[in-house]
Amino acid sequence: MSELPGAVRRVFPAGTAIAREHQARSAILIVTSGWAAFAKMLPNGSRLIVDFVLPHEIALIEFAGEMSETVTALSGVTAIELAGPVRSCFSRYPQPICEAVLAAEASRYSRLAEHLAGVSRRGTVERTAHLLLELACRTHRSATSYPNHYACPLTQTELADALGLSAVHVSRVLKTLREAGLATFRNGVVELHDHAGLIEMAGFDRSYLST
Fold this sequence. Notes:
Number of strands: 11
Number of helices: 6
Strand content: 25-35%
Structural class: alpha+beta
Mean pLDDT: 91
Low-confidence stretches: none
Order of helices and strands: EEEEEEEEHHHEHHEEH
C-alpha cells in the first residue's frame, strides 16, 4: 500500500489530533501501529469515544467540517495515508484496496451499532465485558479463538469515555470483573481469565466483527 500513488507515511505522537471536529478533512489511513480514537466532544467539555482504530485496520476520515469527530492518537500511531475523498478511491486504486475500504466502512457501522446498544441498554458490567471482548477479537485477529491476554494502551479515563461512565465507576466495574475471576486490566494489559464466563455475562456475539 505504501507504493500506491499518493501514499504518504504518517507518524502521529500520542495525544496528537489526527483530525479535528468541525474541520474539513478527507483521508484513508491504513494504521500500521498504535491505537487511535474517534470521539465526539460535548458542549460541557465531556467526551464520548465512539470507536477505536487498532493496528492493521483502516480508518476512514471523511469530515465536511459541520458534523464530524475528533480523531486522536492514543498511543504513537504510524499509518499510510491515502488522500481522499474516500469515494475517489474507486477510480484511483486497485479493486482489492477498494474492497478493503468498503469492508472497513461496514465494520465500523457494525461496531457503532453495538456500542450504541451497549451504552443505552447494557448494564455497566455487561458493557465493559463486551468492549474488552471486542478489543480482544480485534487485537487477536482470529475468527474462532480469544487470546488469554492482550496489550491495551487505554487509560481508565479513555475506557470510561468509551463506556459512557465515570473513571471511578469503571474502576469499580473492573474490580467486579477481577473479583469474579473473569478479567483483569492493569499496567496496560487485559487478561481474560474466563472466556466462557465473560461471553455469557456480556451476551457477546462476535459475528458483528466478521464484516
